[in-house]
Amino acid sequence: MDFALKAGAAALLAGAVCGGANAATMVYVSNADSKDIYVMQLNKDGSVTPVEQVQTGGTVMPLAFSPDHRRLYASLRSEPYSVTTFAVDQKSGKLKALATVPLADNMANLATDKSGRFLLAASYTGHKISINPISVTGLVQQDGVSVINTGKNAHAVATDPKNHFLFVSNLGSDVILQFKFDAATGKIAPNTPPSVATKAGAGPRHFVFHPNLRYVFSTNELDGTVNTYAYDAAQGTLTLKGTVSAVPPGFKGDAPAAADIHLTPDGRFLYASERTTSTLTAYRVNVKTGELTTVGNFATETQPRGFNIDPQGKYLLAVGQKSNGMTSYAINQKTGALKPLQHYELGKNPNWVEIVTFP
Q: How many angstroms separate the CA atoms of 157 and 329, rounded?
């Protein structure tokens, strides 16, 4: 599908559907090198309908939504390093740029805390994180920003689902840092212990919390694996339990490069992307033990840095940095296997996918 050719007519269709009685599910993809964000509607059959193409004026990756989905934050990684706040129309899903403010560095990862009062950002090249206040109108603020030095190559930052603790993966230091988080002030303090180590040379990258709050799963970029951690929700600490491969059996190519990781909303299936082999690996999750069993490895777009799963857990959408495209997959609700549905042409260097449902 050619996005540009169909965007005009499709926007009218999407607007009509979004304005109907049924909730609309929207897809947002940042394209770093064409410096834009594609907005699409995810349809009930797993297809997508283009809605609009939004210019950002900078190398855009990654994206993060506010908890109420009324604001979208986009990290601009070309100088001057900054973040743009977009208002999100709750009927059409369209974006309107509200403000752009500087960030402390070139930020590879964005997230809000669970209250939406603070923007969290991690700098891979700057070895730091920042915490910016967010106003009551959803705008990122420069005043009151905290900048905290980390180990080497901070890659992802997020608070736990209860918003009591904050975690930072340090790819170059082979640790995930553990902090106590003050949701009233946005201040953090090292937890005890202050970090949990991976295998030497593993390179922890992205991580997700299981909905039962008993486990955390993390991709390790450099050795192409996924770690399972037991999570103590009361203490905010991780304990490494096990490791599984994220590359296909018999892999003998160049160095692996595991990237993104996501769970289905019910926590039964986990998926990880691997860029060297351009595959997605599916795992079945034992919700009682956290053990992962590989379901299969599925070919996808070339160099899949980002993907995501819709809030109903029916579809997975993956983008390829080198294919400049996206493939939609149906998730087998019994096995977790992926069935490719359709390929879509996007902008240059698509890298991040957000999928949200509006009321």
A: 28
The angle subtended at Cα 114 by Cα 112 and Cα 120, nearest 5°, is 25
Burial 313-346 (b: 16+ CB within 10 A, else e): bbbbbbbbbebbbbbbbebeeeebebeebeebeb
**10-19: pLDDT as tens digits:** 443 444 343 3
Q: What are phi and psi of 13, to 5 degrees?
A: -65, -45
Angle at 147 between CA 141 and CA 150, to 5 degrees: 145
Q: How far apart (Å, rounded) are the C-alpha atoms in residues 316 and 40?
A: 14
Q: How far apart are CA 269 and CA 330, in angstroms?
A: 13
Alpha-carbon distance of 285 to 214, in angstroms, equals: 12
Mean pLDDT by 10 residues, the chain (359 residues): 46 39 88 98 98 98 98 97 98 98 98 98 98 98 97 98 98 98 98 98 98 98 98 98 97 92 98 98 97 98 98 98 98 98 98 96
Element (H, E) at 211: none
Question: Whole-angstrom Cα distance, residue 199 to residue 332?
Answer: 33
Structure tokens at 194: 């202050």
Q: Using the structure block, give the residue that is written with the tokens 């992802």.
A: 156
What is the predicted pLDDT for the residue at 12? 38
User: What is the number of other CB atoms lying within 10 angstroms of the CB of residue 142?
Assistant: 11
- By three-state DSSP, how is residue 5 classified? helix
What is the CB-side half-sphere exposure of residue 6 using CA atoms within 13 A? 17
Spatial separation of the C-alpha atoms in residues 201 and 15, rounded to whole Å: 48
What amino acid is encoded at 76 in this protein? L
End-to-end Cα distance, the chain: 28
